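Teaching assistant's notes for section 4

Start the section by putting this record on the projector. Ask students to predict, before seeing the second block, whether YbfB/YjiJ family MFS transporter will look compact or extended. Collect guesses on the board.
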Amino acid sequence: MTEHPSASHARQLMSVVVAGATLLLVVHALGRFIYTPLLPYLVGDGQLTASEGASVATWNYLGYLIGALLAVRWYRPDQIRVTLPVAMLVHVLTTLLQTQVEPVSWLSGLRLINGIANGVVFVQAPALILEWLVRRNRTSASGLVYVGVGVGLLLSSFLVSGTADLLSGPARWWPAALLSIPLAAWATWRLVNLEVPARIQRDDGSFADKGPLLDRASIPLFLSYAGAGLGYILPMTFLPLLTKTQLPAGHWLVDGSWLLVAVVTIPAPILWSFLGARFGDLAALRVNYLIQFLGALAVVLSPGPLGIVLCALLVGSTFVGTVLLTQRIGRALHPHQGPRLSAAMVALYSVTQMAGPWLTRQWLDAGGTLAGAFTLGAVALGWGLLLALFVPRAEDWHARQS
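Reveal the predicted structure now:
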């Protein structure tokens, strides 16, 4: 019996989206954000202090910036087919090596290299998939790739809490390392075989290799996104540690705060994709910033269980939405420069999120509290909301240019 073409196309689309989500799960959750629930245990094991933990996180974010800048250079689909497998191999190797090192300097170096791989993959995988979807008139499905981040956060929470009494010190990285290998192998193979033109073309047939990315429309979007990078990274790095300092041992939120973040992150890409399609990506982005701002502010205004729960729910349900909505708005403002635009945005995003842990360390070393550092995150998200008000709708902008 012959299979209906629509069923075949739907299955193909699903496999591509799942492959992209899997890569983000591996590099962004098992590679990067698993450090957040691990940090209190690594501090408890004596491998790190809270201040050293912030420093290690900063090295990882520096690597993420370098990776994003490399993706600005290697943004064409034919280049992605080479760099994506290399980056995934680097991710797997550095994660395995993290199981063997204890000195903070060695861990910092590995987290730097792991961050480079993360930055390359986080730019290139969604950008390649978006170009593939655009050619099939399925752009709205692009946000589903980010479901992998939420699923990965939930998985990382279970991996850390489920092995907390069995492992200690560097060995706590083993579950993430072993799981990354088969997932990375399959998903990488699936994406490098996508049928996407080697170079992106404009409607007139010219190649979109060069061209300005910054203008009066995109500059507010870039500056807004910078606020998002600084604003979200504080709760996403330090919320479990803050919970441990504010609540007694054995309280369900000590492990449960990260679980809450993970659970609400899973449906977030679907929710914000729908809201963007229903009300417009720009309107959805502004609401997204407002909710995220309130989440970061919650632990400052209401220390304790209520503030922690609100922060976990409000930030967890929005930060991935900020990424996918901003990427779609940027591509609408600058059609045919998708991978290059994505790389430039992630590079800027990583600069400001790298500043978050560094500023937190300076604050803690000066005698400040961890809860006080979250005020900086709220201010940054307020900045993001303000600048988002100056971003024009793509159709209005292009009408003005014609």
